[in-house]
Design brief:
About 30% of the residues lie in helices and about 20% in strands. The strands form five sheets. An eleven-stranded mixed sheet has the order 11-10-9-12-8-13-14-15-16-17-18, sandwiched between helices. A six-stranded mixed sheet has the order 19-20-24-21-22-23, with helices on both faces. A five-stranded mixed sheet has the order 2-7-6-5-4, with helices on both faces. It has about 550 residues and is of the alpha/beta class. The structure holds ligand UAG, adenosine-5'-triphosphate (ATP) and 2,6-diaminopimelic acid. The site of adenosine-5'-triphosphate (ATP) has 22 residues, from helix 5, helix 10 and helix 12. Ligand UAG binds next to helix 7. It holds the Pfam family Mur_ligase. This is UDP-N-acetylmuramoyl-L-alanyl-D-glutamate--2,6-diaminopimelate ligase. It catalyses: UDP-N-acetyl-alpha-D-muramoyl-L-alanyl-D-glutamate + meso-2,6-diaminopimelate + ATP = UDP-N-acetyl-alpha-D-muramoyl-L-alanyl-gamma-D-glutamyl-meso-2,6-diaminopimelate + ADP + phosphate + H(+).
């Protein structure tokens, strides 16, 4: 039976469960959630004393004394894995009526009497239950949630640096990784499920973390993953097309994000910091407004009305930039940023406005921002070649357009873009990405991203359609090369001094998922290798 995990592993890296778990009676959870208490397995040994010390919704993640949340899903019902969870030491189960039936009908009945909390929609109560089991740890620290279509990871990294720079102990939860005071904990989702999140907060509390910055995806908001968290600050970056496979339309997508700001929502942050550059931001700021004068702070890099505004931006040859952030009382901060691109000025302005709202020392926060690079976000690959080579995570139309525009401004030469679209994700964005790539690049090579369970040729065909539908006079050359390594090779062979090669869509990812199997693939390594093989000796502009 798997033992309770430690909040620190033998190598000193933080674990994913607290070391000092608290026991919560199953009857208390029934009362808290309104779930009905039933019993399955051997009759006669029911004990109202049953307690749980942790919770998970993946049977494979269960350790002794856990509550197993057996949820209905799109692919399967968690109750199918109840026997496995009990074998790993779960002492109780949370499920719905269908789950209870599945457990009762299972070939292998539990060899003891097991309490089952039955709720019509267990996902709706899982956040509160998880918070309770772990002692409501998010209330012991200042939590900042960042949402929006693009810029969450970048803004989080900038803010994490500001928090550390200002002398606090930061926690970070996001797409690339979870970090506890700078030490890594791997993460599979941008925003983990509620049981994992509250456990992480409990570990962070044990390790003395005082300020947490976390990315909050629209999936998380819609699926209740952040329920039970008390957010001090909610930050909004922007909204553009993505995830319309999961959300019915843009309005529903907006409403999911709005859960972090809507005064009616149970996960509403106490303060909102909103970038009002786009119309969705302006709507979000209006929605978040209450009678409290400090409920919303607005920030803008455009002409939009806002309390915090960005003044003139100076861009150096290497793309790094400086700008002035001007506040409501005329106070102004000179900001230096290593990250290139106008959109990163927006990310940095948002990060700083949040850090001021969080009470961080402004000078220290501003200083810290100037040191930040983000893995796989406009990450330069330099092997001494005479053209600029960049890996970026743009995998949606607006992001692709933004990063191409940034790089176009940065080089005197031409732009090559290697990009594809992911399988089992918003199919509507594929043609738009093809269009953005074809309009922006002198050479667009349409390739595979993570096809997942889809036919890669069909995904490429959609991206290609968007690309070739752009009139020839308005676009560059378009090629289709399915093999991603070969596509990168072709872009590198094409590049001349002063050009830029952008490999977009996978950023920090280190695998390519094809038919359920993740094959090792890191754009940064492959691009570096191709430059080494085909573009060496270019310090003087030549090629092999
Ligand atoms: C649409 C979505 O987010 N679905 C999530 C949801 O799936 P689901 O409800 O359909 O569950 P299911 O796979 O049918 O499984 C049912 C239950 O059985 C359990 N189970 C299932 C199999 C097993 O072997 N053992 C087991 O215990 C599962 O934990 C679950 O509780 O619950 C599952 C359990 O946590 C998640 O794995 C799954 O995320 C899928 C894999 C996913 O890819 N999600 C992505 C789209 C996502 O959430 N992305 C956002 C970022 C988006 C962005 O901004 O870019 C994120 O926050 O990461
Ligand atoms: N503020 C922004 N506006 C538009 N595009 C942006 C912005 N910030 C970043 N991007 C683009 O989006 C890509 C992803 O950026 P980042 O990882 O910071 O966003 P994210 O919201 O975390 O994305 P995801 O939800 O896909 O994980 C970048 O590589 C860049 O191309
Ligand atoms: N969090 C995003 C990541 C997409 C990354 C891209 N490389 C792809 O596979 O589409 C998602 O799950 O939609």
């Amino acid at each position: 039976m798997p033992n309770r995990l430690q909040s620190s592993n033998s190598d000193g890296a933080p674990g994913t469960r607290p070391t000092q778990p608290v026991a919560t009676a199953i009857t208390a959870l029934s009362e808290l959630s309104g779930a009905r208490l039933e019993w399955v397995g051997q009759p006669g040994s029911q004990s109202s004393e049953v307690v749980v010390k942790g919770v998970d919704l993946r049977a494979q993640g269960i350790v002794s004394d856990d509550l197993f949340a057996a949820l209905p899903g799109a692919r399967t019902h968690g109750a199918q894995f109840a026997v496995d969870a009990l074998g790993r030491g779960a002492t109780a189960i949370l499920t719905d009526e269908a789950g209870l039936e599945l457990i009762e009908a299972a070939d292998k009945a539990p060899d003891r009497s097991v309490p089952v909390l039955v709720h019509p929609n267990p996902r709706d109560v899982l956040g509160e239950i998880s918070a309770e089991i772990y002692g409501r740890p998010s209330e012991k620290m200042q939590v900042v949630g960042i949402t929006g279509t693009s810029g969450k990871t970048t803004t989080s990294y900038l803010l994490e640096a500001a928090i550390a720079g200002a002398g606090r102990k930061p926690g970070l939860v996001g797409t690339i990784e979870t970090r506890i005071d700078g030490r890594r904990v791997p993460s599979a989702l941008t925003t983990p499920e509620a049981p994992q999140l509250h456990a992480l907060f409990a570990v962070m509390a044990e390790q003395g973390i005082d300020t947490v910055v976390m990315e909050v995806s629209s999936h998380a908001l819609a699926l209740g993953r952040v329920d039970g968290i008390r957010f001090d600050i909610g930050a909004f970056t922007n909204l553009s097309q993505d995830h319309l496979d999961f959300h019915r339309d843009f309005e529903e997508y907006f409403q999911a994000k709005a859960r972090l700001f809507d005064p009616e929502s149970t996960v509403r942050a106490e303060h909102a910091v909103v970038c009002v550059d786009d119309v969705w931001g302006r709507r979000m700021a209006e929605l978040a407004a209450t009678d409290e004068s400090d409920a919303v702070t607005t920030v803008s890099t455009s002409t939009a009305e806002a309390e915090w505004k960005v003044g003139a931006v100076q861009v150096a040859e290497d793309g790094s930039q400086t700008f002035e952030l001007v506040g409501p009382d005329g106070q102004s901060w000179p900001v230096s940023l290593r990250l290139p691109g106008r959109y990163n000025v927006a990310n940095a302005a948002l990060a700083l406005t949040v850090s001021f709202a969080a009470g961080l020392d402004p000078d220290a926060a501003v200083r810290a921002l100037g040191t930040v690079d983000v893995p796989g976000r406009v990450q330069r690959i330099d092997r001494g070649q005479s053209f600029l080579a960049v890996v970026d995570y743009a995998h949606k139309p607006a992001a692709l357009e933004a990063v191409i525009a940034t790089l176009r401004n940065q080089v005197p030469g031409r732009v090559a873009v290697v990009v594809g679209a992911g399988g089992d994700r918003d199919a509507g964005k594929r043609t738009l990405m093809g269009e953005a790539g074809a309009r922006g690049a002198d050479l667009l090579i349409v390739t595979d991203d993570n096809p997942r369970t889809e036919d890669p040729a069909k995904i490429r065909a959609s991206v290609m359609r968007g690309a070739v539908d752009v009139p020839e006079s308005e676009r560059g050359e378009v090629r289709e090369v399915g093999d991603r390594a070969l596509a990168i090779e072709q872009a590198v062979r094409w590049a001349q001094p002063g050009d830029v090669v952008l490999v977009a869509g996978k950023g920090h990812e280190v695998g390519q998922e094809i038919d359920g199997v993740k094959h090792p693939f890191d754009d940064r390594e492959v691009l570096g290798e191709m430059i080494g093989r085909f573009a060496i000796n270019t310090a003087h502009g030549g090629k092999q």
